[in-house]
């Protein structure tokens, strides 16, 4: 209260003194001459001559005046102007003293100067990462970067949709207009890159202004459309085959959003990089440059995963296996595919409504063209040989788990396949899967039909192929040891997709009538995959391979008993070993 009173006291005095300095000593006011020399202020009221015909010369200093206006100039006192400036500085000091007492001397800098320094911040990747992510020895930020980011609300990027940052109130009307003006002349790829000091500052301030409605509607609409999208197509495809791409994106605004592409209604939810990404591994053998590059890759892109998938890879920054539109042949061995994206804004008031589809409003759409390689000789071979069947069944293990499906608001059973460490695998790019069914069979008659408790709603596919490494910083090899991979290298990995978007990968649907079965000899739980005929242009939900296994695969399901399955179907009780 005291500092507020002092602020207004000094401000009113500064205004009064300023008006006195600028307007008090004007021509003709309070006995002053109506005309006077603008250089020496000599009285020219009775000076001979007509200014309309010729210039009037001052007899005191010789200054010529060609118009009457030049002889009516207001005389401004520098001492009074200086006094008004001192009073204004006193008022400003009174306004920032509480901030200085709370945040230190750095808070004394006017916010407009902080915003004006944004264009001078570093564009080096890594300069925008906080100290608790990147140790100081590996940081490449300078003193200006660190100071400005400490004064900008939300510069770290970890802002919830409904979070209110008190620093936003410190930025006045002119500071806000200046921030949007400077942002418009910057490269959008720089604005969306939160790993740089410049991008982090713009994202934090503009995101907070839009979130708390401290900007005009046209500024908010412009900021919502600033997005960087990257689509990578790693393989070659046939002339009529749908290309498969890896899609990743990042936005200027901080917070949650939804995006759909290819006009197929499939929605993904995205958010600015969350603190879960700090769980990445850092090798002691890394150099400072490699460590910085490692964290930059983890925070460069937004976290994106399907809307229905509640417990996906929260560190994932790509939409792997996105089925894209068939491209147009360019005649040079490449094809061009046009991809449409539509972004949605959350209009709710709290985080509880993030799963409510009606609280998401489409805000803008955009398109981009992507080229990929054409292979006129490419065909997807169908293989039903016992050798490939044996290779798949011995290289992977299956387990039954539970995953929370947000649309149904319940736990659903899903099948998860994992490579068996210590096996050699096979050196081909293979797609396998199909219709899934879970059976309880007699161990003495493993080939019998048994009792079917679950069946998939749609076809589910797995792909074992070589891909460019971009998701996780380390993985365990077939030997069980941790191996480090740099971004951009490739490795063979297992991917899974449901053919249709309404199902989770590997999702099963229960048969309640099966619980009536009382055959106590059927105690072995097995998974069966049945693949029907596959054509040359078949869509595997976004998976790539040179051949597909056509036949029936069978995997043992460990840890589950028939009683566990019955409790899951009837009462919704999930065993602890099946929880994510």
Provide structural commentary:
By secondary structure, this protein is of the alpha+beta class. The protein has four domains: 2-105, no CATH class; 106-227, no CATH class; 228-373, no CATH class; 381-578, no CATH class. Helix content is 23%, strand content 26%. The chain has helices at residues 2-23, 78-103, 111-116, 143-151, 173-184, 188-191, 197-211, 217-224, 288-299, 386-395, 562-571, and strands spanning 56-57, 64-65, 227-232, 244-251, 257-261, 267-271, 303-306, 319-323, 328-329, 334-346, 360-373, 381-383, 396-405, 410-419, 430-441, 451-456, 460-468, 474-476, 482-484, 490-498, 508-510, 524-530, 547-549, 552-556. Strands 12, 15, 16, 17, 20, 21, 22, 23 and 24 form a nine-stranded mixed beta sheet that branches. Strands 5, 6, 7, 9, 10 and 11 form a six-stranded antiparallel beta sheet that branches. A three-stranded antiparallel beta sheet has the order 3-4-8. Strand 9 (328-329) and strand 10 (334-346) form a beta hairpin. The longest helix has 26 residues, at 78-103.
